[in-house]
Write a structure and sequence with these properties.
The chain contains 17 helices and no strands. With 460 residues, it is mainly alpha-helical.
């Protein structure tokens, strides 16, 4: 198989685990998981989520890493080389293109939302949460969304932070940042959990998350858990395949992915525990507050609790770090493609890709204010259209094609060779789930995401 010169291999043991965990954690687990768990019954949802991670997330993540390590290049070149090796159609190169395009599109609006965390960290440090109630906290958040200038500044800052890391390359930039960012993030998580214990509501939070009621199980909760299990591991967006290209050939793919998935789930549960402890310790706010839980509900809690200035600052610093390592992973696939395919210097590649994503992100900035009511497609504005296109089409289709290609098209001897560090039993279970269960589950995700929109379009 033709391979490009390998630019880098993770230089230190554990770097891939930290990088993949950082990519997976992101805002999905710290922002989204607590509120969807709160809206869907707590423990029953957590159980469903764990099952979906094991049966869908882990098998496809193993397959995506395998492709990256086998190809030793950016996702597009990797898929072109591997499909040639397999004697398969050029169609399968689409997997790489879908990943790079999806990562680029997500990056364009992810940095806009991540930018909110910079604003809220500044507010926390200035002790601006004191005296907030539900109405005033809503007004504070609405004022941020309405201020185009503030959104552009924070969007620009976050994009610059992201591009700067990758300009220094994989080892000097990406790996070095991951090596100190992730331990700090985990320490902040544990510190916040420890403080949550002092509020006296950590046990209430644990009962909420882990008290199981059969009546809480529902088909809708299952679909939400399935979708989140897929998206939380950064599958189908090129990042995991790009990181897999830097993975040492002696590393065990299966064991590594299981560790990453466990860390990802652990972060989600720990975050939920202390978030709900803060919520339950604050009168007048509810656990099922929806997407506003982090930016509307928690500031009220921080403003009313002892040491709220320090706890609020620590919390939003943690969110900034988690978002930062995620945006880095979203930028890397496209940067690697320009660097390897067209021989762009990494600095030039970063400036081109980050600049284009920043420019596209201005549409998302305007979607929260001036363009909020401007329909682009099917009743959705600019940002929600891109979100729908990536989350409901590009990512799951990419994941589906990865499962089919590795499970049915790729030579079985090659997959065995790439997984030779793992036990034969793990390989057999993985291959079976990847071939038969994972594709069906991803098809359910696609249908569940697209069907409601299609019914509205047909009705019109």
């Amino acid at each position: 198989m033709k391979r490009l010169k390998q630019h880098a291999i993770w230089g230190r043991r554990g770097s891939f685990i930290l990088a993949a965990t950082g990519s997976a954690v992101g805002l999905g687990n710290i922002w989204k998981f607590p509120y969807i768990a709160g809206e869907n019954g707590g423990a029953a949802f957590v159980l469903l989520y764990l099952a979906c991670v094991a049966l869908v997330g882990i098998p496809i993540m193993m397959a995506e890493i395998m492709l990256g390590r086998r190809g030793r290049a950016n996702p597009i070149t990797t898929m072109n080389n591997i499909r040639t090796e397999a004697g398969a159609s050029w169609f399968w190169t689409l997997i790489g293109w879908l990943g790079v395009i999806a990562g680029f599109l997500i990056l364009s609006y992810y940095t806009v939302i991540a930018g909110w965390t910079l604003d809220y960290f500044a507010l926390a440090v200035q002790n601006k949460f004191v005296g907030l109630d539900g109405d005033s906290s809503n007004k504070l958040f609405d004022a941020l969304l309405a201020d185009r200038s503030r959104l552009v500044q924070s969007h620009t800052s976050f994009m610059a932070m992201t591009a700067l890391v990758l300009m220094f390359g994989v080892n000097k930039g990406l790996e070095n940042v991951i090596r100190w960012t992730m331990p700090i993030l985990l320490l902040l998580l544990l510190a916040l959990l420890g403080y949550a214990y002092t509020t006296g509501e950590l046990l209430t939070s644990a009962r909420f998350l882990f008290s199981f009621n059969v009546e809480d199980l529902s088909w809708n909760a299952t679909l939400i858990a399935l979708g989140h299990a897929f998206f939380t591991l950064s599958l189908g967006m090129g990042a995991i395949m790009a990181y897999g290209a830097y993975m040492p050939s002696t590393a065990a793919i299966g064991k590594t992915v299981i560790i990453v998935a466990l860390l990802d789930v652990l972060v989600a549960i720990i975050t939920s525990l202390f978030v709900f402890a803060f919520v339950f310790a604050t009168p007048g706010i509810q656990a099922s507050q929806g997407p506003g839980l982090i930016f509307v509900t928690l500031p009220v809690a921080f403003g009313s609790m002892p040491a709220g200035l320090f706890i609020g600052s620590a919390f939003f610093l943690m969110v900034i770090l988690s978002a930062w390592v995620s945006t880095i992973s979203l930028l890397e696939p496209a940067v690697a493609y320009l660097n390897e395919r067209f021989d762009f210097h990494r600095i030039s590649a970063c400036l081109i890709v980050a600049g284009a994503a920043w420019l596209l992100g201005l549409g998302s900035v305007l979607s929260f204010n001036e363009w909020s009511d401007q329909e682009l497609i099917w009743g959705m504005n600019f940002r929600t259209s891109i979100d729908f296109f990536t989350a409901n089409l590009l990512l799951p289709i990419g994941g589906l094609l990865i499962a089919i290609f590795v499970g049915w098209v790729m030579n079985i001897e090659i997959t065995k060779h790439e997984m030779q560090q793992d036990s034969p039993y793990l390989y057999a279970v993985w291959r079976f789930v990847l071939r038969y269960f994972a594709p069906l589950a991803v098809l359910v995700i696609i249908v569940n995401g697209v069907y409601p929109v299609l019914t509205v379009v047909v009705a019109e």
